């Protein structure tokens, strides 16, 4: 029989929440804009034709209605990571977007003429033992149209599979997300990513869905309620960067972190320095400016930390 003290220690370790730093490798791909340019596509003309122009000079308005996303930014996004949805995990490549709050991926039930859906990975609820039906319709308005579908609930694994063990990462249970059945325009057809995982505050979440990171915080899956990005500026390096949940890694930056308060408790971004679009006033993963800095998003203190990124 084990001594009581040893037994209590073992039980304590089993009951303790996962507090390790969660690492998600980021891979760099050719952006949608560059892909279309190489194919001779009129990128700027495409943007100018749609109503996106009225959103290009600022952040989407926080209202009770649909929230217009800044489609221009997604055309420049280059860094994507992999998550899993369901049990066993179905893997998807997503943009980790600090300017929105919802998670969505293409659905197996997408429309017949939705080309973007058919050429990307699709979520199949019938293959998941942890799927819970929701069915509420959702609509995210972009400049050139609206992405629509319905909500579902399942377990989200971040990352989909660990590079070391080959097993799924931390599991965020009971996560509500969007199954997209209709995707607008050519942008998502040319994109290398399957969907988008919003990292911003719940305030701007469509349908008031609890964002993945907030759900992760509620389930106490990380020791610190922060996440940080490192983007490798070497175009030939793989992985192209790393997203860390629950902490930072000093090897990725030099000098002290300088913190700025977020502009409002909505976006994980901040105003400053009058950087013109598409580099500002808010940045998402993949923008040119943010790639020069190691970036820390501190949700407890509602602030963003920046330090000069190292070249590895």
Automatic annotation (TrEMBL):
Q: What is its main location?
A: other
Query: Peptidase A1 domain location, by residue?
Result: 79-312
A GO cellular component annotation in the UniProt record? lysosome
What are the GO BP annotations of this UniProt entry?
proteolysis
Give the EC number(s) listed in the UniProt record.
Answer: 3.4.23.5
- What does the record give as the reaction this protein catalyses? Specificity similar to, but narrower than, that of pepsin A. Does not cleave the 4-Gln-|-His-5 bond in B chain of insulin
Leader peptide range in chain numbering: 1-20
Where in the cell is the protein located?
Lysosome
Q: Which domain of life is it from?
A: Eukaryota
One MF term in GO for this entry?
aspartic-type endopeptidase activity
State the UniProt keywords alphabetically.
Aspartyl protease, Disulfide bond, Glycoprotein, Hydrolase, Lysosome, Protease, Signal, Zymogen
List all disulphide bridges recorded for this chain: 110-117
**One Pfam entry name:** Asp
Under the heading InterPro entries, the entry gives: Aspartic_peptidase_A1, Aspartic_peptidase_AS, Aspartic_peptidase_N, PEPTIDASE_A1, Peptidase_aspartic_dom_sf
Family membership, please give it: Belongs to the peptidase A1 family.
What is the name attached to this protein's record?
Cathepsin D
